[in-house]
Amino acid sequence: MFRRRGFTLVELLVVIGIIAVLIGILMPALNSARRQARSVQCLSSLRTIGHAYFMYAQNNNGAWPVAVHPLGTYIPIDQERRWYDLIAEYVTSVRMDSYSDIDKVRENSVLWGCPEYARKDDYMDPNDKRRPGYGMQYYPTYWEDGNNLKNLAYIGNTPAGPPRGRYVKQVEWRKPSDRGIVADAVAHILGTSPPPFNATVGKWQPFDPIAAVAGYIYLDGNRHGPPSATKIQSYNKPMLNMLFCDGHAQPVSVKDAWNAIHNPGGDGTTP
Predict the structure, then answer these.
(1) DSSP reduced 3-state for 139
(2) Contact criterion met (CB below 8 Å) for 224 and 239
(3) In 103-225, which ranges are E strands?
């Protein structure tokens, strides 16, 4: 009769070691594939948001939504409105009469369409509950027309002088294929500032604390990149998504996003 021979301890340790090595090799690839899939889902949501902009224009004499329309401005309004509740009727069946109603649709809506938005369920700030994870820029022609405050897509008042901002016509957003309109962000707006702008001067999440200072553009610069990415990598490599004024959406770097707002079709950054 033959005795059945079992595995020795050394053999078991070798097998366990091989499995551990395989897991170590495969996990980065799996994580990368998961990030890519979520980025594709986010891009799809941005394209749907782009369609909503065009539908809004069709029903509003060719005008696009403004980024923000607060109370107490030269255009009277009962509730503060923001770009995402202005287009909500085209992307969700839930009625939104104010930007604060966005919490009603956050479970299933392209307005909360990025699965990588870290603050979707774990709010770091009370305002996060009223921010969709995307921000709209409000400079349709601002850097090309002498910084004319009247042409901002952000309604407001100036202390002394003409009213600020208006509902800008869709056709007035110049260079639509190069000009970004909505992108992954940690606020509901995307700001920008005059040059110089580079990886040192510019400030964005998650590498700089949020602050209303020159150079801060509220981009979520590494939303779709690896967790280990550095600020300089997010500046140069496409790690966030952006919707453009012609309706297409694509991954961009922070540098690309800044140029798409400030200098569409060119490069206004400094080394």
Answers:
(1) coil
(2) yes
(3) 134-137, 180-184, 189-190, 203-205, 216-220
| pTM as predicted | 0.86
For residues 50, 132, 143, 177, the Cα torsion angle rounded to the nearest 10 degrees is -20
CB 237 within 8 A of CB 221: no
For residues 65-102, b (16+ Cβ closer than 10 Å) or e, as one string? bbbbbbeebeeeeeebbbbbbbbbebbbeeebeebebb
Quote the CA–CA distance of 162 and 110 in Å, as a whole number. Answer: 36
Residue 12 covered by a domain: no
Alpha helices in the chain (DSSP H): 9-58, 83-86, 231-236, 254-262
Is 1 within the bounds of a domain? Answer: no
- Written as six digits, the tokens of 77 are 């309004």
Q: What is the pLDDT along the chain (271 residues), one digit of tens a residue?
A: 555 566 677 777 777 878 887 777 766 766 667 878 889 999 999 999 999 999 999 999 999 999 999 988 888 898 899 999 999 999 988 888 888 888 788 777 899 889 888 665 555 566 777 888 999 999 998 777 767 888 899 998 766 667 889 999 999 998 999 999 999 999 899 987 778 899 998 999 999 887 767 678 899 999 999 989 999 999 999 999 999 999 999 999 999 999 999 999 999 898 8
Distance CA 207, CA 216 (A): 11
For the chain, what is the domain count?
1
Residue 58 located in a structural domain: yes
How far apart are alpha carbons 165 and 152 in whole angstroms? Answer: 4
66: in domain? yes
Quote the domain boundaries for residue 208.
37-262
